[in-house]
């Protein structure tokens, strides 16, 4: 190839390489954030699980029963679910969740 043709071809190849590298970096960042968020969600799930079991055991001991504490904790979760289900269409809940999510993401980075 002549020198005149080779320069634009080299330029285009260089630009394609830069774009590929940028895409790799962006994907890498997104995957890292996703892994972090999933890890935090799993840890929070375990925390909620063990706190729920502990609370149920406390209620069982308080009520001198083997099962009432678990029903009380289940009732608390049903109540929370019902409240969230009823207000799910409200913009207030969406705005608050978005605000906390943005705050959470800003504090992480």
| Count of alpha and pi helical runs | 3
Q: How big a fraction of the residues is strand?
A: under 5%
Oligomer: single chain
Largest sheet: none
Distance between the termini: 49 Å
Derived structural class: mainly alpha
- Write down how many β-strands occur, each being a DSSP E stretch of 2 or more residues: 0
Q: Are there runs of 5+ residues with pLDDT below 50, and where?
A: none
How helix-rich are the residues, as a percent range? over 70%
Shape: elongated
Mean pLDDT: 87
SSE string: HHH
Radius of gyration: 26 Å
Fold topology:
Blueprint: H1 3-63, H2 68-86, H3 91-108
Task: Considering the chains and any ligands shown, give keywords for the structure.
109 residues, mainly alpha, 90% helix, elongated
Short description:
The protein has helices at residues 3-63, 68-86, 91-108.
Report on this structure.
By secondary structure, the chain is an all-alpha fold. The chain is 90% helix and 0% strand. It has helices at 3-63, 68-86, 91-108. Helix 1 packs across helix 2 (68-86).
């Amino acid at each position: 190839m002549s020198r005149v043709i080779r320069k634009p071809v080299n330029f285009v190849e260089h630009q394609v390489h830069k774009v590929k590298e940028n895409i790799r970096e962006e994907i890498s960042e997104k995957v890292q954030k996703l892994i972090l968020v999933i890890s935090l969600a799993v840890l929070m799930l375990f925390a909620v699980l063990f706190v729920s079991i502990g609370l149920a055991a406390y209620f069982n001991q308080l009520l001198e029963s083997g099962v009432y504490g678990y029903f009380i904790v289940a009732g608390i979760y049903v109540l929370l679910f019902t409240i969230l289900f009823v207000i799910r269409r409200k913009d207030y809940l969406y705005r608050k969740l978005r605000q906390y999510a943005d705050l959470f993401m800003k504090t992480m980075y």
